[in-house]
Input
Amino acid sequence: MPPSEDLVRVSLIDAETGEVFARTELAAGQLPESFAPATRLDLDGDKWDVVLAEPATAAEYTASGSLELIVRRIRFVDPLEIKYTLPTFYDPLPPTDPAAGAHRDDLVIHEDDWRQIELVSADVLAEAEAELAAVAEIRRHHSRVVADGAASMRVFERIRVRQGPVTPLPGGLPLRRLLSLLPPPDRPYRGVRCRDARERLAGSFAVGFGHLALYGRADGDRAAELCLARTPHAGLPPAAAGELADGLVRVLRAFDLRLVDWCQARLLDASGLPAWLYAS
Output
């Protein structure tokens, strides 16, 4: 039995440090019936989320007379201090097809990843290079690395919203011929869908090669966009990766294309593609 049937000894433990930073006694009636739902505390004007309660229910901590709460302080950030995790993205997104509902065999991408790595025609190089210069400026003068080791990441104070090249492949590319230059994919997709969307992008297609997918949109047999995306699947064996690199080089040379890695502000021709591919 607890020393007082009406009081519960409460210990507050900081989830970040693991240290007890406060102890108090509260009447059982002041505590919730259960901490199973997300619970928020207001302590001296600071707000804390309950990460774990031991024990979790009123019946248990009333019987034992003690309760440990592991809590995490909620830190409010000045919106002016919020940084971007990408230096650029393309806007607008293409339309969706109401008749093409979500399917487990869709290639699912984050909406910000649309056209982040793409192939562009030599005919639009001037437009692409102007956009790349703007992204490179952000990377050089408006970014910094935060955290250390494996947790480190580059953040950006500015972001470039690209609206071009509007037509990266003027006239389109013959999709069947293009795919014939590549090794057989190991993962076919029904199309491309943005995360949380219920419909696929209109006219979208995608094929997978290990941890990479080739995707875009086509009107009949004419590909209007041709992009690459990293996927969570296992990488290709060395021989298969070499075949993919050779195939992509054939595509770039056959159609006089360049690969643009927008977030890295890199523009590559066929000779530079294999090294980029093996590093990705």
